[in-house]
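Dear colleague,

As promised, here are the two records you asked about, laid out in our usual form so they can be pasted straight into your sheet.

NAME FIELD: protein one
SEQUENCE, THEN STRUCTURE:
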Amino acid sequence: IGIYPETKHPTYFDSIGLSLEEPLVQILNENGYSDRNSPVFIQSFEVANLKDLNELTDVPLVQLFDATNARPYDFVVSGDSRTYADLVTPTGLAEIATYADGIGPWKRLIIPAAPVDFNGDGQPDDLNGDGVISDADYILQDPTSLIDDAHAAGLVVHAYTFRSDDRYLAPEYNGNPQAEYEQFFSLGLDGLFTDFPGTGFEVASRLYPYTQPDPLGGVGLLTTTNTTEA
């Protein structure tokens, strides 16, 4: 079992003299997490702190991606006009590969989904009739090239967040969360974040028999945001 810490709001904490990077690396070093083979990833939605961490530690680093129209907060502060849409391009991924080992995209950056308006009323259709527009009402689109592009840049891909609740499953999965995992793994996904580790582990174990853990080895890595299944 490894650990996967995220540095939250690093630019803000730098601005008040409470840099996160140095104490984080110190704690990891004190506990034996100090090289590329350590079972740990450090992740961040910002860029500058990952570049700093790349100078401080050899443990794997992951660049998180928010919605494509959003900007890393350190970009906002520094006046860099680029958004996450720029970072997911081959050029952006090549830059990320200079300071990180992987990317952590929202899963819809890999398989997009879109609402439909079959009745022509100008509003998204409530396909499952529950009175709420959710992922269950969004139709899957063709996969993007993000996984292939990231792999071409030498980066692993860990997508977020997979859930088994009906409202989070696209209608094409027919209420079967395993079908979602299988589709993403078939595209070459290296790992994922899930609120339902039991379900994710079952699929990963079936597709990728257990081997000695390798943080950068790819397929089947599961990380969790909850400790138990709900």
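NAME FIELD: protein two
SEQUENCE, THEN STRUCTURE:
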Amino acid sequence: MAGLAPPARPARRWTPRRVVATPAALDHPHGQRIVERVRALGIEVEQLRANRLTGVRGQTDRETYARAKSTMAIVVSPPARRVLQPIAPSADWRVDLAEGCPAHCQYCYLAGSLSGPPVTRVYADLDDILAGLSGYAGRGTVTSRNARRADEGTTFEASCYTDPLALEHLTGSWRRAVQHFADWDAPVQLRWTTKYADVDTFVGLPHAGRTQVRFSVNCAPVSERFEGGTARVPDRLAALRRLALDGYPVGLTIAPIIALPDWRERYGELLDQVRAAVDGVPGLDLTAELITHRFTPGSKEVLLDWYPRTRLEMDEESRARKHGRFGAVKYVYPREQMAELRNWFTTELTARVPACRILYWT
């Protein structure tokens, strides 16, 4: 197995039922490129008369959700999105190339975070977004000025509000971003996380080691029950191996960690899968981010509207109440349970995948 990538399975790709483009988006070269890519896939593009999305809301919340989740809008990014914000503990800066995700994860952390129906918006002003990044180099506080993580350089997180590999075949945005960072001769890094496995366009692409791709993975009971519309975890790990063999820094986002009755056994199986996936990769550069399940009152309300039959545990009485930024309330595992989870993951990940560096636990 050493040095060989497993044969790639046909990648799972999202096909939106409706694609719309605003007039402003079509004024940008990348907006035109997206339209051409989408039409080449046999998908019709509806050109809107105004820079406002219409026809998304249905008569019920469920109908609105279904319409929105099957719609992709080609738009110009809002001005506020082009003023970058820190995204601790992941990266120095959040850079958005899109907003919204076509997957159907029943624990979706975007629920309650974004306003309006969950339409996937892809940004036509990519060239302007990338051109504006240089002013942020060396100014971050999460990695670029952190002694423990300074080797990562100034980091730009490009998956905060979306899943790049779910959209790349439709937009080409992240390939262009990889090329931009490869040409940027500075201590910088582009990074994103994904639940998909369509990496063909990135294998063989010059990247200069300045793009890290992380794969969000979970144990089988969680991924199979709660992650609708995504790639299978074995396929994600196979994609991780392909990129690692191509010299990319890669990572694991183990999230959300859920304290199932048999969580040690189930997550042990996952870590063994990871060990097999990276076996024999020369010069492996692998990190892990460990994120436990949490929810807010707002996200719980939205998720129960979206997935009324979900079996996801969101019981406030069994959780610890925690206050985040600006007084926001979230529910996390109690202190003792959190410590037990953390100790196990830290010990077992180090033992089973010793090359893996744990970036943070939350």
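A couple of things worth noting about protein two: DSSP finds eleven helices and 17 strands in the chain. The radius of gyration is 20 Å.

Best,
R.
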